[in-house]
Amino acid sequence: MKALNPHLWLYLSPLLLATGASHANIAANGNSEEELDALFREAFGKENEQLPGELEADLRVNGNVQGTILARTNGKTITQLQREALLPKLHPYLKESLLKSLEKNAANSGWLSASALEAAGIRTRYDIQELAVAVKIDKKSMNRRMRSLLSALPGDKQHVIPERLADPAKVSGYINLSSGISQDFSNNSAEPSLNVRAESAVNVHGFVLENQHTYQHGTNGKPGKLTRDYTRLVIDDAEEEHRYRIGDISTESRNFQGSLPLGGVQVTRDLTWASSREYTPQGNQRFSLSSPAEVDIYLDGRLHRSVRLQAGEHELAELDALGGTSVKLRIKDDLGKITTQEFSRFTDSRLLSPEFSRYSISVGFPSHREADQLKYDTKRPVASAYYQQGVTENLTAGVDVQTDGKAHQLGGDIIWATEIGNVTAGVSHSQSRNGKKGQAARVQISRRPDNRGEGDKQRPIQWDIAAERFTPDYQNLNPQDDGTTTTTSTQAVKQQLNASVSKAFSDRTSGNLGVAHTTQHDGKTRTNLNAGVSTRLGKNLNLSVYGSQSRDAKGAADMSVRVGFSMPLDATASGRGQSVSGSHDDKGRSQLAYRISGKDKRGVDSLSGGVRLQSERGKTGLGADVRYQGEAFDANLSITPQLASSKVGYSGSANVNTAIVFADGAVAMSRPVHDSFAILEPPEGLEHPMAASRGKNLFQRKENTLDSLPERYDAVMQPGSKAVLNNLASYQVQHVSSDSAVLPEGFDLDATEFDVMPDYKSGYRVKVGGERGAMLEAHLADASGQPLKLQGGQLIALDTKQGGKPIQFFTDEDGVMRLSHIRQGNYRVELFSLPDLRNPPIRVTGKPGETQTLDLRATS
Question: What CA–CA distance (Å, rounded) separates 811 from 833?
Answer without folding.
Answer: 12
